[in-house]
């Protein structure tokens, strides 16, 4: 998940089509949304397994909502460049960076 968050938080690459790096945008979205079902299941249900606490669940909840909003506007078949250029992508980047910070905090905070 940390790798997925890193992709989402990173500076937007200059692309004409798809990102060819690994992990790429497609994998990052799959790992964060599809593999966890957090688009249909509250991340709070993952506290104690994938997530450590309610603060992590809260930021992941907001991030998943932002990613899903971009997906709803752009569609799964849109180019990575279209996703990165979406009006809501700045929210995705900000929330992913916030999630990385939250996950890096010691467990007792």
Please characterize this protein's 3D structure.
- The chain is mainly alpha-helical.
- The protein has one domain.
- The protein has helices at 2-9, 25-34, 54-74, 80-84, 89-104.
- The longest helix has 21 residues, at 54-74.
- The radius of gyration is 13 Å and the shape is globular.
Summarize this structure as a short list of keywords or feature phrases:
109 residues; mainly alpha; 5 helices; 55% helix; DUF7945
What would a concise description of this structure say?
This protein has 5 helices and no strands. The chain has 109 residues and is mostly helical. It holds the Pfam family DUF7945.
> How many beta-strand segments?
0
Q: Please indicate the count of domains.
A: 1
End-to-end gap: 20 Å
Q: Can you tell me the overall shape?
A: globular
Task: Report the sheet with the most strands, covering strand number, pairing sense and barrel closure.
Answer: none
Instruction: Classify the secondary structure makeup into a structural class.
Output: mainly alpha
Order of helices and strands: HHHHH
Count, helices: 5
Give the amount of beta strand, in percent.
under 5%
Please tell me the overall pLDDT. Answer: 89
* Rg from alpha-carbon coordinates: 13 Å
Uncertain regions spanning at least 5 consecutive residues: none
Give the % helix: 55-70%
InterPro entries: DUF7945
Pfam families: DUF7945
